[in-house]
Structure prediction request, 71 residues.
Amino acid sequence: MMGELCKNQMNDLLKYLIIVTLAYYLVKGLLYLLLWQMTYKVQEKALAEKKKQKERRQIEKEIWKNEDDDS
Prediction:
């Protein structure tokens, strides 16, 4: 009788351990997914800003070139 009670407790403990482990990896996966999405958005914004700055520098360069040609 005592051995069976201990066996049931171990089975319950094992079930809880599996559930907790799966929940941990689910939360961890969701956090990694969230972080990946955030870094992807930051990268997109940075690339867009870099492109704008490059276009702005090119326009300024053309303006200076045109002013030099006019004089």
The first helix runs from residue 2 to 70. The chain is about 95% helix and 0% strand. The CA atoms of residues 57 and 63 lie 10 Å apart. The mean pLDDT is 89.
